[in-house]
Write a structure and sequence with these properties.
The chain is an alpha/beta fold. The chain has two domains: 134 residues, translation initiation factor eif-2b, domain 1 (Four Helix Bundle (Hemerythrin (Met), subunit A), Up-down Bundle), CATH 1.20.120.420; 228 residues, 3-Layer(aba) Sandwich (Rossmann fold), CATH 3.40.50.10470. Helices cover 41% and strands 20% of the residues. It has twelve helices and 18 strands. The protein has a seven-stranded mixed sheet, sandwiched between helices. The protein has a four-stranded mixed sheet with strand order 13-10-11-16, with helices on one face. It has a three-stranded antiparallel sheet with strand order 3-4-5, covered by helices on one side. The longest helix has 40 residues. The structure holds 5-S-methyl-1-O-phosphono-5-thio-D-ribulose. The site of 5-S-methyl-1-O-phosphono-5-thio-D-ribulose has 17 residues, from helix 2 and strand 11.
Length: 369
Amino acid sequence: MKVGGQHFRTIWLKPGDECVIQLINQRFLPHRFVIEEIRTVKQMATAIREMHVRGAGLIGASAGYGMYLAAKEAAASGSFDEHLVHAARQLKATRPTAVNLSWAVDRQLKNIAGAKTADEKIAFALRTARLIAEEDSEQCRMIGQHGLKLIEQIAEKKPGKPLNVLTHCNAGWLAFVDYGSATSPIYAAHDRRLPVHVWVAETRPRNQGSKLTAWELSEHGVRHTVIADSAAGHLMQRGEVDLVIVGTDRTTHTGDVANKIGTYLKALAARDNNVPFYVALPSSSLDWSMRDGLKEIPIEERSAEEVRCVDGWLEGQQVEVRVTPEGSAAANYGFDVTPARLVTGLITERGVCEANDKSIRALFPEQAP
Ligand code: MRU
């Protein structure tokens, strides 16, 4: 997508130097656009854990490139398999909720095992890392095409009027390699000149909505308004939301959706107000092993400091200020699970389906029950 009119992806192999991965360090957005260079698997693990990169698809793509760096290191270490297994463990331990992480690492392990020499293993790992990134981008593009139809259906019912889509957190191109999941239909509608307007929920505690989603929509020229998280229900009651589209970090094959904390409350408000609530996801975010999202999906708990403090931009510097009394305890749950019954549908790269096992498997019949 565009940054200052120039096309960027979130992660790529440095042109002319196959030892370096370049990525947009999102901790500085929207105030500074910083490209970081990653040379080791340890640096990649830090980038994922500390959220220089984040979002399900991008975590998967970063892990894919991390495993490529690990293969290079393993070849130099003298004990290839041991080093690779250690790196896989290190990457998988960075963040628990997005299933794309283990999916990408396991895919790399399987492919690398199919090669014989160390050089061949490195080449396989690079090819797989590139493939994971390419597939992510293409799947998100297709999500846009399928989701666009939903927005067009609403547009037919209210010709010439603004189409109000509400989204939560950042399931935009910054959370993937390109296009995004929840934002991809929005970009497609905007590019078709439909009068789409986005309610961007700020998404405390880290504010990925007001920082990242607002920034990327601005860069692409999409009309949007940032709202406090708690304003979403009020807007729905007033008929000012036509459609909710959110992303997901892991969705069970039964349709339970783990996404950034606060998603569940938006789904409840949407149900109470008959607002369609869609979840956009590439199939890499589907977990085929879990049936019960509430019981089984691991929910990340992050530092309480993220709740106690907010950061922002002051006189050319990023500063952090505390917003709670000094002695107050705080808890920081990163994600929640929206039960399938509250989800109107899933927008995948293969089309839209209901949030249940039968409908999901009909789109992905190759997944054995
Ligand atoms: O904690 P993050 O920033 O990694 O959270 C991920 C998200 O941005 C959201 O949960 C998003 O809606 C789904 S990831 C495509």
